[in-house]
């Protein structure tokens, strides 16, 4: 493969990113885009055919080499490599959740004065799942027991994960029959590493069963606890209005960007930037105020609850710095490029690392711990303000889109049915009638091997046109937010006739932002509620739904994909041929065998049009299996008011006249 250096336009479909990529070329600044052009991926590793699990190798299984030094076959090596990645991704999500459990515990014990239970309602719900009594007890008492029970899920000596019982009964039975019900979170990660160590599990199907068990410990364990405890500590999301893309940076304000994944720090920073003393300090340095924005999943967490603006997704972290307008970028863990510091060093930007788990050479170190969280956050804001005074020339793309995020399953329930009859019935009915053809969860990363945001943009547009409701998390959600698809108006402009009617009736966007990648657990909950509501079968695998990560790159995305499959979903990973392409047998195992075993399957499909075709085919197949009417777009579109964008711009009296045909009384 010859190296090809892409132009800015070829590298991204986001116009704000393109402007910054041009500036990167002009200033000769290295970015992930350029590095991806310069590094030709190792074809053997890319297919999963390189084993470096012991010092007898690394063994590369190509040509006539059919076995590694130990005798391992290509199938075993591909399965082992893949399963290790799933363990790594599961560990990342779950360790994040562990941190939240410790924060809740510290708050309940009075050791973290800046944190408290913001959603006592959710606390009681979670207590119920964990078998903790709530009657006659204080919030603090319940919170302490919830935190301890959550921590117990990581290493309990006997039994299975408590949250498994939140799944449909049929699903729980499938896990039991296949011996893939996770016992505790840490044990499944540890056992995966053990089994894939030299000279252990040598049956690829058996290895992949462990991939499912480990991933389930993430989805119905680490991630679900992570979501629940975040809601307990910071509030369950509900819709809020915000903005997305690099245009949210302000030329005349101190710009502080939070990046990474943990909400504990970012929530404190949200509080710190509102401190009148710090605002006055910023003004004393010539700034109009302090502007907070976020990247990646930290951004999603802060957006969902606080309406903090989105500066961009994974591939925009270096680009944000290239505006020259970021005074400080504060990072914690996960998806933080090592390439950031050299870019920050070209500007006045302070790159501040905070996590005891992630040291970043060259960064300013302000270690965060929950015991004096707000004080640390204020210190960070002060650094940003001091750097503002050192700012040089800036170039902020004048590009941003409105976004209405915050669709927790609790809010969807409420939006569909109201306070007194909250229910998923209207959603199930819309799918059963065919107004909504099916549901796609479009999630996951950006990958510099793919033109930035191009596949997210393409597949989501196609699904909306075909009356498929799209729910999103992670960097996929940020891509749609930037594209302007997360407003109720977008339904009128892009959605097909049936989906448009539903969105108009409820006043919701056609693409629902459900949170960070850890919050994919919310999608499991929604699917479970749909399955138990009636009319769409009685298990997740019956629902006309597909999970897609069109531009994935992280091992966390593999963990999500596998727990979704083991929960009964068809999952498509896009952009590349995928990490198991070196073995036809493994590809078959993950599609045909897994579908027979657990009702879900995993496929890697590089190209957008083929992703859409297979997803539609699957949705229609599931509709047919449920005996639902064949999808027919011509039946819909006559109710609802397509004039909404013009109407809302009119003064009240004219609007009433336009709607009711008579002047306002
Ligand atoms: Ni998810 Fe979030 Fe983005 Fe990918 Fe990284 S930020 S946890 S891994 S790159 S979606």
Task: Describe this structure in a few short sentences.
With 665 residues, the chain is α/β, with parallel strands linked by helices.
Q: Tell me about the biggest sheet?
A: 6 strands, parallel
Find the CATH topology of the largest domain: Rossmann fold
Roughly how many Å apart are the termini? 72 Å
Name of the CATH first level of the largest domain: Alpha Beta
Tertiary shape: globular
Radius of gyration, CA atoms, in whole angstroms: 25 Å
Figure out the total of helices: 28
Please list the strands of the largest sheet in the order they lie side by side.
6-5-4-7-8-9
- Integer average pLDDT: 94
CATH architecture of the largest domain: 3-Layer(aba) Sandwich
Tally of separate domains: 4
Helix vs. strand class? alpha/beta
Helix content: 40-55%
How many strands in all? Answer: 16
Give your account of this protein's structure.
The protein is of the alpha/beta class. The protein has four domains: 86-234, Substrate Binding Domain Of Dnak, Chain:A, Domain 2; 242-388, Rossmann fold (3-Layer(aba) Sandwich), CATH 3.40.50; 404-631, Rossmann fold; 634-665, no CATH class. Helix content is 49%, strand content 10%. The protein contains 28 helices and 16 strands. The strands form four sheets. Strands 6-5-4-7-8-9 form a six-stranded parallel β-sheet. It has a six-stranded parallel β-sheet with strand order 13-12-11-14-15-16, with helices on both faces. The protein has a two-stranded antiparallel ribbon with strand order 1-2. Strand 11, helix 19 and strand 12 form a beta-alpha-beta unit. Helix 6 packs across helix 7 (139-155) and helix 7 packs antiparallel against helix 10 (204-234). The mean pLDDT is 94. The protein binds FE(4)-NI(1)-S(5) cluster. FE(4)-NI(1)-S(5) cluster binds at residues 261, 296-297, 314, 334-335, 444-445, 474-475, 516-517, 554, 556-557. FE(4)-NI(1)-S(5) cluster binds next to helix 13, helix 20 and helix 24.
């Amino acid at each position: 493969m010859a190296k090809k250096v892409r132009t800015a336009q070829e590298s991204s479909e986001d116009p704000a990113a393109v402007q910054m990529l041009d500036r990167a070329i002009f200033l000769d600044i290295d970015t992930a885009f350029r590095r991806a052009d310069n590094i030709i991926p190792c074809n053997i590793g890319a297919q999963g055919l390189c084993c470096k699990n012991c010092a007898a190798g690394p063994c590369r299984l190509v040509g006539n080499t059919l076995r590694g030094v130990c005798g391992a076959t290509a199938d075993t090596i591909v399965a082992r490599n893949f399963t290790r990645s799933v363990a790594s991704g599961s560990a990342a999500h779950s360790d994040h959740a562990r941190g939240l459990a410790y924060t809740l515990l510290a708050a309940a014990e009075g050791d973290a004065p800046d944190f408290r239970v913001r959603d006592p309602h959710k606390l009681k719900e979670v207590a119920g799942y964990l078998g903790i009594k709530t009657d006659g007890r204080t919030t603090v008492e319940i919170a302490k027991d919830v935190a301890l029970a959550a921590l117990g899920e990581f290493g309990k000596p006997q039994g299975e994960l408590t949250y498994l019982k939140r799944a449909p009964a049929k699903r729980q039975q499938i896990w039991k029959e296949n011996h893939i019900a996770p016992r505790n979170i840490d044990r499944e990660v540890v056992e995966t590493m053990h089994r894939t160590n030299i000279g252990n599990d040598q049956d690829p199907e058996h290895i992949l069963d462990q991939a499912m068990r480990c991933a389930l410990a993430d989805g119905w364990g680490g991630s679900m606890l992570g979501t629940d405890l975040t809601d307990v500590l910071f509030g369950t999301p509900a819709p809020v209005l915000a903005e997305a893309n690099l245009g949210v940076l302000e030329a005349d304000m101190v710009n502080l960007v939070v990046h990474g994944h943990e909400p504990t720090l970012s929530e404190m920073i949200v509080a710190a930037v509102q401190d009148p003393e710090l605002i006055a300090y910023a003004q004393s340095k010539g700034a109009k105020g302090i502007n907070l924005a976020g990247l990646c999943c930290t951004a999603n967490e802060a957006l969902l609850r606080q309406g903090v603006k989105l500066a961009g997704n994974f591939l925009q972290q270096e680009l944000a710095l290239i505006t020259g307008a970021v005074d400080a970028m504060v990072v914690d863990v996960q998806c933080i490029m090592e390439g950031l510091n050299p870019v920050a060093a070209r500007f006045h930007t302070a790159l501040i690392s905070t996590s005891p788990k992630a040291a970043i050479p060259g960064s300013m170190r302000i270690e965060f711990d929950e015991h004096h969280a707000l004080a640390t956050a204020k210190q960070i804001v002060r650094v940003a303000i001091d750097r503002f005074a050192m700012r040089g020339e800036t170039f902020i793309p004048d590009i941003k889109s409105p976004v209405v995020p915050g669709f927790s399953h609790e809010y969807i329930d409420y939006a569909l049915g109201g306070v007194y009859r909250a229910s998923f019935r209207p959603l199930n009915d819309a799918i059963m009638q065919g107004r909504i053809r099916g549901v796609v969860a479009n999630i996951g990363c950006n990958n510099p091997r793919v033109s930035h945001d191009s596949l997210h943009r393409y597949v989501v547009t196609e699904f909306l046109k075909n009356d498929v409701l799209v729910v999103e998390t992670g960097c996929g959600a940020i891509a749609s937010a930037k594209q302007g698809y997360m407003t109720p108006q977008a339904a009128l402009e892009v959605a097909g006739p049936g989906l448009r009617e539903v969105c108009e009736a409820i006043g919701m966007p056609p693409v629902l932002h459900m949170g960070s990648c850890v919050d994919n657990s919310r999608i499991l909950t929604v699917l479970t509620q749909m399955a138990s509501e009636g009319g769409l079968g009685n298990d997740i695998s019956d629902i006309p739904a597909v999970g897609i990560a069109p531009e994935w790159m992280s091992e966390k995305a593999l963990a999500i994909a596998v727990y979704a499959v083991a929960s009964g979903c068809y999952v498509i990973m896009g952009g590349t041929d995928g990490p198991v392409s070196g073995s036809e047998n493994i590809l078959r195992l993950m599609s045909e065998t897994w579908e027979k075993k657990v009702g879900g399957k995993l496929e890697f499909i590089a190209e957008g049009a083929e992703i859409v075709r297979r997803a539609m085919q699957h949705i229609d197949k599931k509709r047919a299996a449920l005996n639902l009417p064949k999808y027919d777009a011509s039946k819909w579109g006559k109710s609802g008011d397509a004039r909404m964008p013009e109407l809302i711009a009119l003064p009240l009296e004219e609007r009433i006249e336009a709607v009711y045909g008579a002047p306002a009384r």
